[in-house]
Design a protein that fits this description.
Number of domains of chain A: 2
CATH architecture of the largest domain in chain A: Alpha-Beta Complex
Helix content of chain A: 25-40%
Strand order of the largest sheet of chain A: 6-9-7-8-10
CATH class of the largest domain in chain A: Alpha Beta
Low-confidence stretches of chain A: none
Shape of chain A: globular
CATH superfamily of the largest domain in chain A: Spore Coat Polysaccharide Biosynthesis Protein SpsA, Chain A
Strand content of chain A: 25-35%
Structural class of chain A: alpha/beta
Number of strands of chain A: 17
Largest sheet of chain A: 5 strands, mixed, barrel
Distance between the termini of chain A: 41 Å
Oligomer: homodimer
Radius of gyration of chain A: 21 Å
Order of helices and strands of chain A: EHEHEHEEHEEEHEHHHHEEHEEEEEEH
Chain lengths: 356, 356
């Protein structure tokens, strides 16, 4: 894949994995599925076919030390720092400025750092197809083959197949659908040709910059100013100045839904979102009870236990999510595990900085 | 109350409060209800009207340091050491030998160390009545006024009132009833005149020694040998020799149920057994959720949390018992909390000494 670059997005607080994920260690830095963090897994996955020097990361400044610790081979100038969060359209735009300066002809795959991909071989084929489509001028999104009528994801409705030679078909996009109601999700999954939007994109840098100019002109102006300043001592002051002028939006809303040259590559890649403890529980095991450490279960079923430091005894309980950390212990149900966000919001309102 | 001595029983493993109670720190040593342990509370309760020099404790050797730490005013020769557990009839008999040597005319109240008494003024009146009856030659048991048809306690059926002048009535005992089935418990509570057997006794030492001679002659022989050896260098070797000859039984089965001079003093003293986490939960609070420390509850009700060292977040859970310690975490329901014993038994079978 000549010219394929990778931009790993490492923003986001990952509050739904509290109390393990914290402000200073969001979920992409956690070793949830083995000895490598989700961020390291994301890089490992592409490093099999993309040279290390073509991998970039965008992240807020407070995570810079952690990223260099977890990715020691990442060149310092490949870590693009977003001053503070303004939605991923601004963060991605900032990184596009860096990439455009590095290689104006770059094709780049934009990949979140908190996903799991089970089928790496298929993932590679999907990226080859997406790269082929991107080289033909498309803004390409990966469309995850839906396993169930999930209402927690946005959907992409595919249109006709495009005439692009590739190991996986490439289709035009008819429309993006925001997180649907249950019945709408069921209809889409039953109809076929609908995919989950996982926020993964492949495009030529110059092509997406044209889309920024057209749909997010304020961000495009910031990108242009930054592109000129890259490598000069002015960069930091230009960044500080233009950052607050960028549009507060996401790539999905600000670019993908508005552009008319969007394509989708159906991606049947064993993709999993680690969006909640219940989702992580699905990923780690189908066992009756799953525990990160020593477990004694008496008449207990379908529980998920994260407590690597201690023995956990469960008696007569079902469907619980238990997460133990040195200063906080969460007990909820798999059904309610997304509501961890509510607790985190409450801790924020109460200024419990020690627990965030 | 002239001549009233107190013997506090500090045996028992208290496994049903695992993982907080451990072999080297059973429940009577735990500060479950404030800054004083249950053992300290037991002594404080009687020290209001019994001089310290008339208070004795019987315990296994491994708890000697802990008892002197928690009860620094206890004279060394007031701690009677049972070499290893053989049921409380042997332990009480051993202590009776010590008391008989100390004061042959002693009247002694035998009190477990893991109970809660809410009404201390009434407790004192009950002990005055029991002492009066003991001085008349009765083996007196305290009968707890039952609050519900509990199947977890043995019952005492009272007979006629005895003609003893005292602040609380004293009645003869018709029979002892072992832990009953539900319907039998309901009938007894509805009928009145039935009391919970809490294992608290008051008697003249010489009177109970006669009962040992009659009903537990092997233990009585051991007591006689020990009584002669008290204060001499031979004591330890005599104890080691006679201990294994004692009857393995309890005061309830071995003495109280067999003797014909047993009386009962109805004791409406706010008594509570701390026999399980669910029982402790009842004692500490009627609040919707109770926590020993910082709690964040979202749509969570009727939970009991012991985790003094950390913040606990509960979301959408009900009726749980959660007990956190540095090396073990228990999650069960109030309904199932007595089954902690099952977990402890399993840990014993698996030789998990670190957790016992």
């Amino acid at each position: 894949m000549p010219r394929l670059y990778v931009l790993v997005l490492s923003g986001g607080a990952g509050t739904r994995l509290w109390p393990l994920s914290r402000r200073d260690r969001p979920k992409q830095f956690l070793e949830l599925l083995g000895e490598r963090s989700l961020l390291q897994d994301t890089v490992d996955r592409v490093a099999e076919f993309v040279p290390r020097e073509r991998i970039f990361v965008v992240a807020p400044p407070e995570h810079r030390p952690l990223i260099h610790e977890q990715l020691p081979e990442l060149p310092v100038d490949h870590l693009v720092v977003e001053p503070y969060p303004r939605g991923n359209a601004a963060a991605v735009g900032l990184a596009m400025a860096a990439l455009a300066a590095f290689d104006p002809d770059a094709v780049v795959a934009v990949l979140p750092s908190d996903h799991v991909v089970g089928d790496r071989a298929q993932f590679r084929k999907v990226l080859i197809a997406a790269t082929a489509a991107a080289e033909r001028g498309h803004l390409v999104t990966l469309g995850i083959t839906p396993e169930r009528p999930d209402t927690g994801f946005g959907y992409i409705e595919a249109a006709d197949r495009l005439d692009i030679e590739a190991p996986v078909e490439v289709r035009a996009v008819k429309r993006f659908v925001e997180k649907p109601k249950r019945d709408a999700a069921e209809r889409m999954v039953a109809a076929g040709g609908h995919y989950w939007n996982a926020g993964m994109f492949v495009w030529r840098v110059e092509e997406v910059l044209r889309a920024y100019e057209k749909h997010l002109p304020k961000t495009a102006a910031a990108i242009a100013a930054l592109r000129d300043a890259i490598g000069s001592p002015r960069y930091e002051s230009v960044l500080a100045e233009v950052w607050e002028e960028t549009d507060r939006t996401t790539v999905d809303y600000g670019i993908a839904e508005k552009a008319d040259n969007v394509a989708v590559v159906p991606a049947d890649i064993g993709w999993r979102d680690v969006g909640s403890w219940a989702r992580l529980a699905e990923i780690v095991s189908k066992a009756d009870n799953w525990a990160s450490g020593d477990l004694v279960a008496e008449d207990a079923h379908d529980n998920f236990v994260w407590a690597p430091q201690k023995t956990v005894a469960l008696i007569g309980v079902e469907g619980l999510v238990i997460v133990d950390t040195p200063d906080a212990l969460l007990i909820t149900t798999k059904e309610r595990s997304e509501d961890v966000k509510t607790v985190v919001d409450r801790l924020k309102r109460e200024d419990r900085e020690d627990l965030l």
